[in-house]
Amino acid sequence: INTPIRASSLLGSIGSQTYQGTIKVSVRPRPLSETASSTGSWNINKQGNIIANVEAGEFQYDKVFLPDADNSEIYRDVVEPVLEKCLQGYNGTVFAYGMTGSGKTHSMQGSETENGLIQLCATELFRKLNAEFNAFKVGCSYLEIYNEKLIDLLNFDGPATDDLRIRDDPTFGIRVVGLSEHWVASEKELIEVFERGDSARKTSCTNFNDRSSRSHAVLLMRVEMKQDSSTRHSTVCLCDLAGSEKASSQSERRKEGAFINKSLLALSTVIQKLSQGSFNHIPYRDSKLTRLLQPSLSGESIVSILCTIHLSSSTLSETINTLRFAARAKNILMNVRRNEQQDTDKDRYEQLVRENERQKQEIE
Ligand code: ADP
Ligand code: MG
């Protein structure tokens, strides 16, 4: 997002390669907790792409996991294909969407006993960068959207910034002004930075569960990869979204539930419009989340959505809401440009890189 790389694309990309396809949508039911009353009798077909229930009907996706699938299985299906494309120079975005308690954070961050998609992605990213490229750079940013405020979670030393602005820069595109970026040289460093940011998130509030169900956490990895005669760029974005359930009580709705839902509601509207094939008047500006993700949703990124659901009958209506959201998202067509430049005119390239740096500092 803080990507001052458009100037270098003046060099011209190799061919005009684009990736076309629909958004990939997967559904992950979480195992029933011991207290859940009943399963609400969901069925998943043998091929693992249809989930059905007498009351809800039948829903088809790219993938429906079984409740006992582990994070590495989810990683292989949901994240790995996106990461592959990122290494070719496409941007990639993965969202976890679903009601509170359905397993978004369990999927993204894992548990004591199991790595999450973030750790698995970091490991694979550095393994592949080391194996396939002469040189590379990875910059990491981590932010939270809470009450329509954008908070930098990696601003360890700087002055407190709890409401960063988003700017649509004519040269650089959508940017978060002043968002910090940490250069990381290994998987270990990346995870360390992420965990530091995450504990900052946890300690910044009195009731973390409450806060995490109302806020969106967005991890950005900006990657620059060099081979003999070309440079590729890619931004990998991993989002753990706020709980998709409707605010339960009147007072909650009045207080901040409605506010949080402003971002999720806007996401849902944007997805709905895009899924109907319309590209004009998409209300990206209605919320911080959609504004931030505008480049991803409008075709600058390959998108994979993981929808997490409960199978218990007590949450049936929320589960149906999630499945409907997922079904709409599946219709969205992506047409994604590849970011790769031939280093034909080396001096000019380096001049542009310097220019980028200068402009970046100026903006910061
Ligand atoms: P969310 O982030 O969607 O609100 P969490 O990921 O925090 O939900 O999950 C709520 C609880 O359920 C956590 O205690 C988590 O460990 C557990 N859980 C969620 N999904 C799974 C799963 N697939 N396997 C085992 N435990 C899970
Ligand atoms: Mg969570």
From TrEMBL:
Binding residue positions for ATP: 98-105
Record key words, sorted: ATP-binding, Coiled coil, Microtubule, Motor protein, Nucleotide-binding
Kinesin motor domain span: 22-332
Transmembrane segments: none
Family: Belongs to the TRAFAC class myosin-kinesin ATPase superfamily. Kinesin family.
The protein's name in its UniProt record: Kinesin-like protein
Native organism: Ogataea haglerorum
Residues of the full protein shown: 75 to 438 of 620
